[in-house]
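Quick note —
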Amino acid sequence: MIDQVFKKQDPLLTEKVHESPINFMIAYTNVQTGKVGYFSNRSSDDIFEALRATKAMPFVYGRAVNIDGQYYCDSLLSASPALLIDKAKKLGAEKILVLDNRTDPAVEANPIIKIGFDLWFHLRNSKFRKNYSAELKRLGNNHINVPLFYLRPSEKLKVTALTNDHLSLTHAVDRGYEDALKNTE
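Predicted structure written out below.
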């Protein structure tokens, strides 16, 4: 996706991302520490590697992504809406728009995905497991005191993190566009 889509097919204009007045951040998990790191368009970080890291599912992609000598991947923690809302609050957000693009919970609860993640988690070092678990617990006890506005699909989408079927992906994008136009909040 990064090399073919964002670099060739529909090139991402990285200079525009870095110049944007919007503070754009991408979360990913450090595979050694279990802590979440963030790409920011306010830094000189390589946005392509940040995008690669945030989508590097450990048991699918098969390797971590090197960013400044640290290795990162995707995880349930770095993809957690609660974590991202917490980060926005810490940065001073007074209103938060949550783009909830999670697919069918039955797909996310797929036993094969869960077993794969559990195995990967238990193969991590003790520091990783401790930090990761502590952060999940902290987020579970976090109280949000800013207005949240959700944009969610109006219908069950037939896509997952592994979908690469053009028709299904196009339908999901079109559905999101239409849902955004209809959302009065």
